[in-house]
Write a structure and sequence with these properties.
Structural class: alpha/beta
Low-confidence stretches: 1-8, 149-153
CATH class: Alpha Beta
CATH topology: Rossmann fold
Distance between the termini: 23 Å
Number of strands: 17
Number of helices: 15
Mean pLDDT: 90
CATH architecture: 3-Layer(aba) Sandwich
């Protein structure tokens, strides 16, 4: 997402009364659920409603989320070279799997539009480009950009790739799957270690105001934290972090319906031993509002993006447990370099703003190192081009 600049939320409050009323309506619904549940709900349930509540959640209702007027920016919006470089890897995979693409959470549609055009230029056009999108307004933006038929499917503006919007992934999919900055917005459980006890953080209501509160963790979270400690050693007293159980479960389902092909999962994250490092004692949860970052997920729910980094060790294990092969893991910078982004940059006029934008994708201080690329699949022979010189699979 956007650069993580510290922010005092109260200093950035929106002045739009409709926006504030929108958030208050969502809070009222969440308070109703808290009351019905006996005064407390787990944080992952709060995050689910804050982001995806029909008609009110951030991804369900807030307009203008991505880009200069939104709250964050992703790689496809920064430079078209992201898609052009990704297309090189996809072209290779199309030699082993049907030329079909499936993207989860396609944002503004920028990645889809550039991939479709670049794959055609490379002589490997996609037959189909399917999109699973939960956000109604982003879906509308994608449809406007990709120019489908009124029936919701049609050839793209420049040729014969059929673009479709699906409510759920198809069974028995064969082709290439892309999930760019999708796993980091799946609800997470928050936990804290107090002595030898694991506590779960959740949300309570106090006179209509949301507050964080802890309770003893249930069996599932307790077991997850025990597994983490078996890998990294005992966590210090007072240590707090997240467990991305929903993301792991999603990857497990991917393994059930991916018949043949490759899935590229691109996101902020670390291998487990880095994620749960003793010095990262407050976790990675972060919120984004107007290109500023802050750490208060209870501030104006529905108006802020809420994210948490990805435990790529857990994701790789979930994929393997579902019968998928681990085909590579590296930084975004190394993946793009191995796929030839420098060759593409040579075709850009010197000093062009697009050159500076592309360098943001590679910078260790920005997206280059913070974002990782994990490749899993079935029936695909390696090695893959994007992991030729920088594969870090041994760190997972």
């Amino acid at each position: 997402m956007s650069e993580r600049v510290p922010l005092q939320p109260c200093g950035q409050a929106p002045t739009d009364s409709d926006a504030i009323a929108h958030s208050q309506q969502l809070v009222a619904r969440i308070v109703e659920e808290i009351d019905a549940a006996g005064g407390w709900i787990p944080f992952d349930r709060f995050m689910q409603r804050a982001l995806y509540e029909p008609g009110l959640g951030y991804y369900a209702a807030k307009p203008t989320k991505i880009g200069p007027r939104g709250d964050f920016v992703t790689a496809p919006e920064i430079s078209p070279l992201f898609a052009h470089t990704l297309a090189v890897q996809i072209r290779d995979v199309f030699e082993q799997a049907p030329p079909r693409l499936l993207e989860f959470g396609a944002g503004s549609g920028a990645l889809a539009a550039e991939l479709i055009a670049e794959l055609r230029r490379l002589g490997a056009p996609a037959r189909n480009y399917d999109i699973v999108e939960l956000s109604a307004d982003l879906k509308a933006e994608q449809q406007a950009r990709l120019r489908p038929s009124e029936a919701g499917a049609g050839a793209d503006a420049a040729g014969d790739t059929v673009v479709r919007w699906l409510d759920a992934p198809p069974d028995g999919f064969e082709g290439v799957i892309i999930a760019n900055e999708v796993l980091d917005v799946m609800p997470v459980k928050l936990f804290a270690r107090r002595g030898a006890v694991t506590l779960e953080q959740g949300v309570r209501a106090e006179l209509g105001t949301l507050r964080m509160a802890e309770r003893p963790a249930g069996a599932e979270l307790t077991e997850a934290v025990a597994t983490i400690e078996a890998d990294v050693g005992p966590l210090p007293d007072g240590y707090a972090s997240e467990a991305g159980l929903v993301a792991s479960a999603w990857v497990a389902t991917l393994g059930r319906w991916l018949r043949r092909g490759l899935a590229l999962l691109i996101d902020y994250g670390f291998p487990r031993h880095e994620y749960y490092h003793p010095q990262r004692a407050m976790g990675t949860l972060m919120c984004h509002f107007r290109h500023r970052a802050h750490g208060d997920p209870l501030w104006l729910p529905g108006l802020n993006d809420i994210t948490a980094h990805v435990d790529f060790t857990a994701i790789a294990r979930a994929a393997r447990g579902a019968g998928l092969d681990l085909l590579g893991y590296t930084s975004q910078a190394r993946f793009l370099l191995d796929c030839g982004i420098l060759d593409l940059l040579r075709g850009v006029p010197a000093g062009a703003s697009s050159t500076i934008d592309a360098l943001r994708l590679l910078s260790e201080a920005e997206m280059g190192e913070l974002l990782k690329v994990l490749a899993v699949g079935r029936g695909i022979r390696g090695p893959l081009r994007g992991f030729a010189t920088g594969d870090r699979s041994h760190r997972l």
